[in-house]
Amino acid sequence: MALVDQLSRLERRFLEIENLLQQPSVSGNASEFRRLSKEHSELSETIAAFREHKSIIKQIADTEELVSEASPDFVELAAEELSSLRTQLSQSEHGLRILLLPKDANDTRNVFLEIRAGAGGDEAGLFAGQLFRMYSRFCERAGFRVELMSMSENELGGVKEVIALVSGDNVYRTLKYESGVHRVQRVPATESQGRVHTSTVTVAVLPEAEDVEVNINETELRIDTYRASGAGGQHVNRTDSAVRITHLPSGLVVACQDERSQIKNRAKAMKILQAKLLELAQSEQEKAFAAERKLQVGRGDRSERIRTYNFPQSRVTDHRINHTTHAIQDFMEGDIGDMLTRLAAFDQEQLLKEQAERELG
């Protein structure tokens, strides 16, 4: 009953908000209307599921009443219906418990997707470029917008580092499990003996920071301008448009050279720096709670190997959930939704277990 009581309170609040949104004093106040509309939207999925849950409970009660009055010929049919409804009720209750889990405050944010070549030289750079293409294809299907912020290429057309801003609905919630070390095993194009090489690429998914959340003191920054390098036509290589910003207290360094304008490059670099500083602050907070989490899928430690892409065996294995798909070509074309769904479900189950343990303890 505790679950139903909690949901009943939320439903009363939901109805209260609906009433408030009709009041002239609220509809005429833009900030209050926006705040209540957001709360209403956040509750709507849970309330819809709760109402369906109540409907199942009523169907069970009605069917039990029929069984008590039914003829012997009808009892078996009604018993089957009851069994099906009770299964639905159990599934509904499980889904409601997931909906009531504490929300990650970053879930609705846009993200900076940062991909860097790790061990493996040019081969790592080539795979980094392929991962960026994979994520770009997935984002296109998901309706997300990908804006390239910075890219550094190697001589073979691979990527040393690429940073992109991904924007849309619930981007962080969708991509947050991708942070970590991605390992590739395959025969490089430059390998004459046909030997399989192992290379690594690191991926970081950083929630975009609001300006008010990260206070950056300009006196703590060292800003350098320099001539952009790499492919990009004549102009980008002839002017000092590239910008490198060093945050002296933390030692963080970001650079941007994609725009022709030094002002635009600086603005982009500052946004990336804000995201990195926000991640740093949140990481420090999370360390204080790390002992409470037995297993964190969550963001994923960038030093942790999370996934292996084995091309000779046509398989992709995520080591956190021990799940393997043998459709590696489809996966590299951006068909990663099933893997992301499995990771989210696994994390939810872990949170539910920990919540149950706390309630028992």
Walk me through this protein's architecture.
Helix 1 (2-21) packs across helix 3 (30-69). The chain folds into 2 domains: 2-99; 111-293 and 301-349, 2-Layer Sandwich (Alpha-Beta Plaits). Strands 2-3-1-5-4-9-10-11 form an 8-stranded mixed beta sheet. A hairpin with a 5-residue loop joins strand 2 and strand 3 (159-167). The longest helix is centred in the first third of the chain and has 40 residues, at 30-69. It is an alpha+beta fold. It is globular and about 85 Å long. Residues 231-236 and 289-302 have low confidence and may be disordered. The protein has 10 helices and 11 strands. 50% of the residues lie in helices and 20% in strands.
Topology (elements, then pairings):
Elements lengths: L1 H20 L2 H4 L2 H40 L2 H28 L11 E7 L3 H22 L2 E9 L5 E9 L3 H5 L4 E7 L10 E11 L13 E6 L6 H6 L3 E6 L4 E5 L5 H28 L15 E6 L4 E4 L4 E3 L2 H5 L4 H24 L1
Parallel strand pairs: 4-9
Antiparallel strand pairs: 1-3, 1-5, 2-3, 4-5, 6-7, 7-8, 9-10, 10-11
Helix pairs in contact: 1-3, 3-4
Q: Which key features would you list for this structure?
A:
alpha+beta; single chain; 2 domains; 361 residues; eight-stranded mixed sheet; globular; Alpha-Beta Plaits
Corresponding CATH architecture of the largest domain: 2-Layer Sandwich
Uncertain stretches: 231-236, 289-302
> What is the count of structural domains?
2
The CATH topology label of the largest domain is Alpha-Beta Plaits
Q: How many separate helices?
A: 10
Cα radius of gyration in angstroms: 26 Å
